[in-house]
Amino acid sequence: MEGMSLNGISILENELVENAARDHGKYFEHAQYALDFLHTFIKSTSYEGAFFLMFLSSVEKHITLGVLSGVRRHHVQANFNFRYATEAGSWAVYSLAHPDPSLFVEFESGGTLEPTKELKKKMYCWLDEKYPDGSASLKRFKDNTNRLSSHANIVDAQRNFGEFGREKITTFFFDQDQEHHIKTDLWAAANLSMGLLDLFYGVNKEYPQLVFGDDFLSRIRKLKADNDVLKAEMLNHLRLKPHVSKIRKS
To answer: Which superkingdom does the taxonomy of this entry point to (predicted)?
Structure first.
């Protein structure tokens, strides 16, 4: 990989984002619809819903970063962000029923805050018991990001490797242009958004902290219908089938 300035990288990445709608068509449009929905589905919230909003902001941020990573041809980075979003979404669900701050973090004697594995384990146990279907769906999604891209491996490493010859070795900062990976990332962003929105809606029925937008149900029906159409299309593509078939709908 030849030297490249950070400013030069920024310019190239901006071009990829600016051209994403043109280059990736309905897949980018679908991801954009999901992001817009994720940012606007709530009309209001109770005071006790403040912790939910904190975690929701992380969900929104990291799914958005996942989309940007995908179109900028950084597939591993996209998966990092989707993984974080599944964890933030799980905490968001938990916070609807548990507004007590002591359930999210331990307060150390020096005034520092410490999120512990024990508290995280309690959260996931509660989610498994109360909402097993939603919990299993998020776990499947997270497991698929963990399967490869959470740790260095030869499959991901080859995305940035071109050739190895006697006189030249070629590597790349950007993933080699594989449209099927970008489509999968865009579809996955919408799929994860849909699953979390559906889970939020169901949990809020039992622990009402949020007021959803009047058009919530019509919007999520459209999101699901479009997501199913694109999944079917990708499954018909031989190169996409191994990637998509392992990510079930949330």
So the answer is: Bacteria
